[in-house]
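Both lines are given unchanged directly below:

***
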Amino acid sequence: MGIDLGTANTLVYISGKGIVLEEPSVIAIDRKTETPRAFGKEAKLLLGRAPENIEALRPLKDGVIADFDATEAMIHEFVKRAFEGNPLVHPRMVIGIPSGVTKLERRAVIEAASNAGAREVDLIEEPLAAAIGAGLPITEPTGNMIVDIGGGTTEVAVISSQGKVISESIRIAGDELTEAIANHIKKQHKLAIGENTAENIKFTLGSAYPVDQNERTLEVRGLHLLSGLPRTIEVSETEIRECLQESVRNIIDTIKRTLEQTPPDLAADIIDRGIMLAGGGAMLRGLDVAISHETGIVTHIAAEPLKCVVLGTGRVLEDKTLDRVFSDRSTLY
């Protein structure tokens, strides 16, 4: 099975079946008994709304494990759901990880997967998996640029002949955009809002470039910090775009730095082929236009940006000619 163990979402691919599970990477834990109470969508509904005896949390932060026990329990539950509760299944797992993680962080992923029942764990760096899932010809000796904007990290890589030529990983991505919106609403309007509300604003109004003339607005409800009472305000697309500019600029600067370090022949290939965007952040309206405007290179959005990494892990499972893409291998049984 292939797993995109993301900061925001976890997706599972089973060889021969395709994507069988897509859930938020959230777990709710009973504080008294220290046992899990909910996973995925059910747990995400409790973010900011949980009773005092329940803690809803994201066990991964910036693309790596922040809470080992919670991550292990979450993987175990998602594997069980993927195989419809069969306790005898001990699958081989191919897991996507950020390219900038340390050896210790890689080992933590392998241990969490093994404790959740894997018989063998292969790790693949997310830019490679995303490039494969997006359909880029990574086996050819030509330059391909992939920008994978997930929940916790943005991965920029130039790939040729099944390997990275150059890459950079920054911990600025979807979660940073959500946090920027929440901070802006708090500072500008003195209104405290929850993570789910900030995320809804991002999906509804978020943009990186003014792509049309229609100015959208949204009513936002939260707790007014001065009065201590609930209040409703209205925010505009332009306002939200401006508060996202610093994070968007950091992502574009990372792309430009990577291009500057790319060998000339591969850079020429990228000019011909364009830049490919993957991950949930790729769906920020106008981001492709902003990147193209700044770099002068046509920028494409993958057909299924949210699913590129897990589709890449699935293709690696089913295509033995892609065996060289693994960064770590561990046989456990």
